[in-house]
Records
---
Amino acid sequence: MSFLVEMDRDRYPADALGSFDGSKFDPGSRTAIFGAGRAMMWLSQLAYETANPEKISGAGGILPAWGLAQRLLIDNPPDNALPLKTACAVVAGGRGATLVAFAGTDPLKINDWITDFDAFPSTTGIHTGFAKAVDRIWSRLRAAIASPPAAERAVFFTGHSLGGALAIVAAERAMRELGVQATAIFTFGSPRPGDARFATAFPPALGNSTFRFVHGTDLVATVGPSFVGFRHVGNFIHCASGGRFDAATPVLPHGNDMPEFFESGLKSVVVVLGRAFDGQLLSPVGQGALGAFFGVLPQQIRDHIPPSYFAALAA
C-alpha cells in the first residue's frame, strides 16, 4: 500500500476498539451498532497496512495493542505482474471474535483499479472484479475462518471502499460454502457489490446484520449506478457531509438502495457552495501536508476518504 492510505503508527491508539466484545454484539442495539462501527473502521484502516507486517503484529504492533492476534495477512504488492485481481486482508482473533478486514482501493495501485473497473456482473450477479479478487485469496481465507477457536466464533467482516464490497462478497460465500454465518458485516463507503440477482439472493440473515455506513455525498457509495442494474444490500446508515453518526442517525432496513448517483452529485454542489460561503472551501481533512491535500479534493471524494469516516464516527 502507499502513503495515501497508510497511517502513522502513533495515530493508532491502544484504545481504538473501545470496549468491543464480539461475543456480546447485539445487532438490534443502536449503541452496539455504532460502537462496533467505530471499532470496525479502525480495522478497515488497518487492512491498508498489509505491506507492513511488523507494524501490524510485530513487537509493539497494532494488533497486540488492541488485544488481538494475527491469524492471516494477505498482501498484494503493486509490482505484481499476475494476478492483478486480488485483495489485501487482515484476519485477527480476540475480543470474542474472528475479525476479517479488507483493504479498499489504493489510488497508486493498478491492481485495485483493474478490480474496480471489471464491473460486468458475473453469472451469479456479483461484480466480476470483486468476485475474482475474493476468489484469488479464498483458499487462504477459508482456512482462517472455517473453524475458529471456540472463544472467537463470532465472525465479523469489514472494509472501507472496495474493501466493503469484498467483505460482503466474502461473507456471502462463507455462509454459502462453509456454513459460517457472519455475526455482522460493517462497510464504509462501499460500492454496490452486485446486481439485482445478487441482492435478491443475499440471505436475509446477512442482510439484516450488514451495516452500510455512508458519509455525506461519498461518490463510491453511488457506484455501480443503480440505473444500470447494480444494487446495495444491508442496513443503510447515512450522515451529512461533515456530520456525525450518532444516536439520532437513522438506520434504514435491508433492501434500501440509497444513495443515488445523480442525487448525491447535486448534494455535493450544495455542500461545496456552503463551504465556500463559510470560508471553509479548502479546509484540511486530517493532519499535516496530506490532510491539506485531502482538503482540495472534490467533495464526493473528500467525503469518501478514511479521515472523513473517522471524524464522522468520532473515532
---
Amino acid sequence: MRKIISIICVVLAAGCSPRVLPTTTVKDSVRVEVRERIIHDTATVEIPVEVERVVTRDTASSLENTYARSTAVVSGGFLWHTLETIPQTIKAPVPVKVTDTLWRESKAVEREKIIEVEKPLTWGQKARLRAFWWLLAAVAALGGWTFRKPLLRLLLKTKI
C-alpha cells in the first residue's frame, strides 16, 4: 500500500511544474564608428636666409618682393648683384585629414517578459498546482515516519 501511495505522489508531483518566465538577454557589444573629415589648417613655413652675388657688365638695378630683396651696383665697370631673402615665417593653408573615433558600449541586461497564454488554466490544473505543496509535505511526513528509527539512531550518535 505504501508503494502505491508513493507512486501516486510521485506521479502527481511530476505533473506540477512551476511557472517559467522566459528571459531575454541582451549581450555586451561595442560599436566603433570612425568618421574621417578634412579640415583646412594653417602650417608655418620658415624661409632660410640665402645670399647670392653675381658680377656682370650691365646697368644698375634694385628689386624687392615679399620674400626677397635684390640690389645691383655698378663698380669699376662691373655690376655687383645681391639677392637676399627676407627672414620671416609664412602661413600656408594645408588640408589635414582628421579621424574621429566614437565608442558606443552597451551592457548586458536581462529582462523578464511575461507571455500571456491563450486560455486560462482549467479547474484540474489549478487544483494540481495548489495540491503540489500539500503532497510534498505529506511525502516528507510519510518518509520521516517510515525512517524514524534510523533517523533517531543517527541523531543520537551525532555529538554536538
---
Amino acid sequence: MSRLVFLDTETVTLEAGPDVVWEVGAIVRDPGRPDAEWRFQLRPNMGKADPGSLEVCRFAERYELAGHQQALAWYPAETPKPARLTFGALAVSLHTLLAGRHVFGICPSYDTLRLGLFLRRQWGKTPGYADPWHYQPHDVEDEVAGYLQGLDSAVPAELLAVPRPTEELCRAVGVDPESYEKHTGLGDARLARDLHDAVTTR
C-alpha cells in the first residue's frame, strides 16, 4: 500500500506564488495506521490578496496568526494550542510530512504548485532541491467520474462535465457535501479523502 496524503491549501489569491498560501490541511495515510490530520497556517503576502479569495475562505474569521508570528501548526488537527513555527521550521515540517507521498485532492495541482513555490523559496540555496511528494498528483473528482462511467455507460453527461461538478459527484457516490466545512484546508482534505474512499473501498 502506498503512502498517501489528502491535501488542500487556502490562498489569498488565485494567482500562483511562493507567498500566497495561508492555510494547509493534510491527512496522511500509512499502511496499518489510522489517518493522521495536520493543520497549518502561515503568514501570506497580503499585498497580493484579492477580496473574492479572502471572502470565500473566510480569512478574516479564521486567520489565527498574531503579531509577527510566521506560522502555526496543529497536530492533532483539533488540538487547541498550536505550535509556533518560523517559515524555515514550517518548510522542514512540510517537507518531512509530505516526503514520498502520493498527493490526492480536489484539483491538487493547484496546491502542489503553490506549496512547491513556498518550499523552494525556503530551500532555495540547497543544491538539487526537489519537491518531496510524488510528481503525479491525483484528482479525486476524476477518480469519481471514472468510477461512475465504469459502472454505467449511460451515466448522465452532467456528471462528466469539465470542470467537474463537485457536489453532484459527491451525491452520486453517497458523500454528503454539506457535511464538510468547505473552503478550509482540513475540510476540503477530508472531503477529498472520503471521495477517494467511496470509490476505492467498494
